Amino acid sequence: MAAPLLRFFGKVSRQLTQPWCSCRPFVRHVSSPAAGFAPLQTYSEEEDMMREAVKKYAQERITPFVSQMDENSTMEPEVIRSLFEQGLMGIEINPKYGGTGSSFFSSILVIEELAKVDPSISVLCDIQNTLINTLMVKLGTEEQKEKYLPRLASDMVGGGVFVYPRPALAAMLSSEDADGETRRSVHHQRIKDVDQQRRVRGMLGLAQGCFDHTVPYTKQRVQFGKRIFDFQAMQHQISHVATQLEAARLLTYNAARLREAGRPFIKEACMAKYFSSEVATLTTSKCIEWMGGVGFTKDYPIEKYYRDCKIGTIYEGTTNIQLSTIAKYIGQEYD
Ligand SMILES: Cc1cc2nc3c(=O)[nH]c(=O)nc-3n(C[C@H](O)[C@H](O)[C@H](O)COP(=O)(O)OP(=O)(O)OC[C@H]3O[C@@H](n4cnc5c(N)ncnc54)[C@H](O)[C@@H]3O)c2cc1C
């Protein structure tokens, strides 16, 4: 599938880098026992392997379908099937139910890598793992777990999850299998604390993916006798966005690590959610500007990242609501 897509884009004038292909150099940071206080961007061996495997998988098996899925507004069944095949739809599910048995932090890394390639696919994977599976693991009866977890890990996409603020939090879960057949079985559950966990993820991968596509372009495009990357005004903007991205990553990873350590994380998760979604808005908007006219067109994936980012400041608590929650915690700290 990749070849026809690249051939199609090859006809586009002013094409300086290959659209829809990752351009980021490979950098590896693995934890070492002698590291002492390890930097936040340190991964366990398992996390590192998972991250690298997903990066490769996303490039090879999702990238070829991104443009087509966007054009047709449909998920490619082959992509959904491959997500299951790779064990990415049951990341934290215990292997006794057919899951991958990996960590919450690994799921954050997986979602980040998928979002770099296609934020829509990452949302599908994210909701399945961090909401639907978590809901079932935390609140399902043993009978429900035995019935649904193996399916959720192997061929059933959960959907239709709604969180109501009053009188108690509740969720409704219906499902669709990998071939798109909708199952009408619906569950109602009280979910007092699942809601909190969803916030620890962001628009980080989306913003990074967009940035990774754009910077190489600025290093190739020449205007007024110079690469546009070499104009100081451009460099300052690029550096500013890169710094925001780094800060968003550190906030996100810190919140995820706090959760894994069993420490309070809600304020930090709200900060990560708020900041990452604002950074994604900034990054995608700036990337379009840095690409000039072609950034606005569908010849490059930048405009799709720009469209996809907007939901980040709205769902799972709008930016205002994140800020209100952060303020609530700050208020308590100073009581
Ligand atoms: C694509 C998509 C997927 C979604 N998925 C889900 C899902 O899976 N589960 C689910 O439960 N919901 C989901 N939602 C709903 C989403 O969470 C809500 O749209 C979001 O919480 C905002 O609520 P609202 O649309 O009612 O906006 P409103 O509450 O009407 O807000 C409008 C504006 O007013 C501001 N505002 C409102 N109240 C306050 C306040 N007290 N203080 C300051 N500002 C305020 C908001 O910040 C916002 O800017 C989804 C929405 C979309 C668009």
UniProtKB/TrEMBL annotation:
<feature type="domain" description="Acyl-CoA dehydrogenase/oxidase C-terminal">
    <location>
        <begin position="202"/>
        <end position="329"/>
    </location>
</feature>
<dbReference type="GO" id="GO:0003995">
    <property type="term" value="F:acyl-CoA dehydrogenase activity"/>
</dbReference>
<keyword id="KW-0276">Fatty acid metabolism</keyword>
<dbReference type="InterPro" id="IPR009075">
    <property type="entry name" value="AcylCo_DH/oxidase_C"/>
</dbReference>
<keyword id="KW-0443">Lipid metabolism</keyword>
<keyword id="KW-0560">Oxidoreductase</keyword>
<dbReference type="GO" id="GO:0050660">
    <property type="term" value="F:flavin adenine dinucleotide binding"/>
</dbReference>
<comment type="similarity">
    <text>Belongs to the acyl-CoA dehydrogenase family.</text>
</comment>
<feature type="domain" description="Acyl-CoA dehydrogenase/oxidase N-terminal">
    <location>
        <begin position="44"/>
        <end position="154"/>
    </location>
</feature>
<protein>
    <recommendedName>
        <fullName>Short/branched chain specific acyl-CoA dehydrogenase, mitochondrial</fullName>
    </recommendedName>
</protein>
<dbReference type="InterPro" id="IPR013786">
    <property type="entry name" value="AcylCoA_DH/ox_N"/>
</dbReference>
<comment type="pathway">
    <text>Lipid metabolism; mitochondrial fatty acid beta-oxidation.</text>
</comment>
<dbReference type="GO" id="GO:0005739">
    <property type="term" value="C:mitochondrion"/>
</dbReference>
<dbReference type="GO" id="GO:0006631">
    <property type="term" value="P:fatty acid metabolic process"/>
</dbReference>
<dbReference type="Pfam" id="PF00441">
    <property type="entry name" value="Acyl-CoA_dh_1"/>
</dbReference>
<dbReference type="Pfam" id="PF02771">
    <property type="entry name" value="Acyl-CoA_dh_N"/>
</dbReference>
<dbReference type="InterPro" id="IPR006089">
    <property type="entry name" value="Acyl-CoA_DH_CS"/>
</dbReference>
<dbReference type="InterPro" id="IPR037069">
    <property type="entry name" value="AcylCoA_DH/ox_N_sf"/>
</dbReference>
<dbReference type="InterPro" id="IPR009100">
    <property type="entry name" value="AcylCoA_DH/oxidase_NM_dom_sf"/>
</dbReference>
<keyword id="KW-0285">Flavoprotein</keyword>
<keyword id="KW-0274">FAD</keyword>
<dbReference type="InterPro" id="IPR036250">
    <property type="entry name" value="AcylCo_DH-like_C"/>
</dbReference>
